[in-house]
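Q: Here's a chain of 295 amino acids. Please give me its 3D structure as C-alpha cells.
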Amino acid sequence: MSAKDKNTIMLMYETGASYEDIIELGIKDYEILMFLYNKYKNTKSPFYRNEYLKNYIQLQLEEEPFLLLSDTHYGSRKEYLPYINYAIEEAKRRGIYTVFNCGDFTDGLVRPHPLYDTEYKQIDHALNRYPENPGIKHYMVLGNHDTKYQEKGANLIKIVEKERKDIRILGSDTSYIKIGGESIAVSHQKNKYRMFFKTVHPKLYLYGHSHQLKKETKDNINYIAAGTLSNEHPNGIQCQEDYPGFYIVTPQNNTYFLEAYQFINGQIKKDKVKTLTLNERKPEKFTKTPTSDMM
C-alpha cells in the first residue's frame, strides 16, 4: 500500500467516511483493516467503530471438512512437490473442496533453487505447479517469505488474483473467518498480529510458520499448527511434530476432529483422529473504555 493510499485512508476514516467508501479506493479490504488497526491501536482513539469491525470477517463458511496445510516454499531448494500433490489428491478422494493455506506458499528468494532465482521465476513456478482442480477453492494468507517479493516490486497478490481464480488471498499474515458461525483466526505466524482480539474473540487459531504439525490450548486459546509440506526443518527433526505433513479437519458442533498425515522416512503415516473442543474465550480488558459513538 502506497503512502498516498495510507494518507487517504486515514483522512477518510477520521472524517467519518463509511467502510464502503474506503473500499471503493480499490485497496484490499484486509489491508484497510490492518492499516487502521495498527495506526490507532495505541492511541486515545482506538479502532472500535462498529461499521469497520463488522467487516473484519473475510470469509464465512458452514461446517464442512477442510484441508489445512502450510509452508510449501515453492522455488526453494527444500521444496518437495509430491507432498502437496498427495495432500490435494487425498482431499479430492475424500470429497473435500476447501483448502486453507497458512502461508509461505513461496520461497521469497530466501533459499532459492538455481532454476527459480528471480521473483517472477519463483512466482510462475508456484502458480504453474500448485495443484488446480475443478471445485477446490484455496484460501491463503501470505507468510513472511511471500511478502519479500514486495522488496523487488512484485505484487504477489495481484499476480495470484489474475492467474489463479481458485486461490483467494485472505490477508497478509492474518485474517479472520467464520466457520459455522464461530470466529476463527487464520494466520501465518502464531500471535504476531492479534488484530481484533480485544473486541472479537476467536475460539480457534490456525497457523503455519513453525513447520510443526500439532494442536494445543494455551492462555484459553485453541491452536492448530498446520505443519509444512516442504523439506525445510529449521530446528531439525527432534520429534514427530517436525515431520512434513497436513491435517484434514472436520468441524462439528464446537468440536474439531483432526486427522494428521505425515511423511516419515518415505512413508505416509496417518495418525489416529484427535479432537479439539473449542473453549469459550474470555474478553480481554480494554486499555481504554470506548466512547458510545465508537461502539
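Q: Can you summarize the key feature?
A: DSSP finds seven helices and 14 strands in the chain.
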